[in-house]
Design goal:
The chain is an alpha/beta fold and 485 residues long. It has helices at 41-46, 68-71, 77-80, 90-116, 131-137, 149-156, 245-261, 274-287, 301-310, 319-326, 343-351, 370-377, 396-401, 432-440, 456-469; strands spanning 6-9, 21-25, 28-32, 60-62, 85-88, 122-126, 159-161, 168-171, 174-180, 188-194, 202-206, 229-233, 264-268, 296-299, 337-340, 356-360, 384-388, 406-409, 412-415, 419-423, 448-452, 473-475, 482-484. Bound molecules: zinc ion. Residues 65, 67, 70, 183, 209 line the site of zinc ion.
Length: 485
Amino acid sequence: MGSAPSITLFGAAGEVTGSCTLVECGAGRVLVDFGLFQGSPAEEWRNADAPPFDAPSLDAVVVTHAHVDHCGRLGMLPRLGFRGAVIATEATARLLPRVLRGSASLQATRLTEFETGTMPIARVIDPEPNSAAIERLTRRRSPPVIYDHREAEAISSRIEPLAYDAWRSIRPGLRVRLHDASHILGSASVEIECAVNGGAARRILCSGDLGPSTPSLLRVRASPPAVDVVIMESTNGAKRFGAPAEIDHALGEVLDRAASRGGRVLMPTFSLGRAQNLLHRLARLRANGRLHGLPVYLDSPMAVFASELHARYPELLNESLRESVLRGDDPLQFPELHPLHSRRQSLKVERRRGAAIILAGSGFCDAGPILHHLAGAIEEPTTEVVLAGHQIDGTLGHGLAADAKRIQIGNAILEVRATRTKLELLSGHADQSELLAWARSLRPSPTMFVLNHGTQRARAVIAELLSAEANASVRLPMPAETVAT
Ligand SMILES: [Zn+2]
């Protein structure tokens, strides 16, 4: 057995990307998540640094979910000498190989674009770009390539699915189990139990990303288990959201306008979670006669794959969706929905005029097929652009949400005449009150909270609220700072 566990954050410490948490105790060492840093070119280069932990001595890596800021560096592990198991829920285990292959392809493509001077240009011209936008667009160094397809395949061969709520022994005195986090399909909080010399075993819970308490698509998560220490995400620690019904109302109005004016509806979206959430809302509006027969194009092979995967896990969906799957329906499919699998299909849809709804990546409008859809339609007053969730400062999505008047995509300078609808409430994360409610549901109260995955401000706000009501120490470690529990 051994000494009490310690916790070190090697990413997502005072920021919202690069999740990577090491839990060490006398019985062994477990890494929870190994995600990409995302943002400016300088942020991206942090991914290329060798991580400051000894990969060969890790006993296992546990992945909370398939978003790249939690799993996107896994492909580095074979080269670093890691030989253990990568543990994830069954749905995450199905998503991960595709996500890692896609990430390897994207890294190679971006390097080629840099070397040939063909990187996509997507920026605001009027008003003048701010410093964050200029930093994003000023790339003096090539983008990093941190693993290739072969390495993505090598780490994928180490993935071992683990059912929710089942213990998996890692070493004598060290075991893990996964609890539903209701964030995206397959998302989990990770419970780690370490045997400690001369005392009861210590239990640590790493929340991973927590979804809203009443998710629109997924089942409501069960209460978290009794643990001693909690590592809690704090993405929305300083934000409170309103009623989710407002989102459907706003979307319904967008569809009504598009149908009556014959315009396009462009929805920049991410392929895991956000796309399925929007599809589910469109299916619901359709059931109420609000889709008006408009064709819906899902312009992302990854989003198509992830959407189809939902029907294979009815037990993870909310009650009405679960029943519809058990009746033989697929709640994320409807006759007007057309999956697009190639750039050729995507360009064909762009050239075809007329009313249509297009969901395409990237969600921040900084790359991907959304750029040619925007370039082809943003000058039309009948076009609707729906900007869902938080848009990172410096991206074209952020500029569009901030009412940019003129933009550049490729070589084209474009006047923005489209109507823009912001759905900031559409977040896959619990808001401040939901984070606090989750923390309160931990019974008995843990002795310590370690906050990660939030800006310094977000974690400071939630830390103050937690300290005021919980009889626990609340820690906000810096990157690579080790916290003894
Ligand atoms: Zn996530």
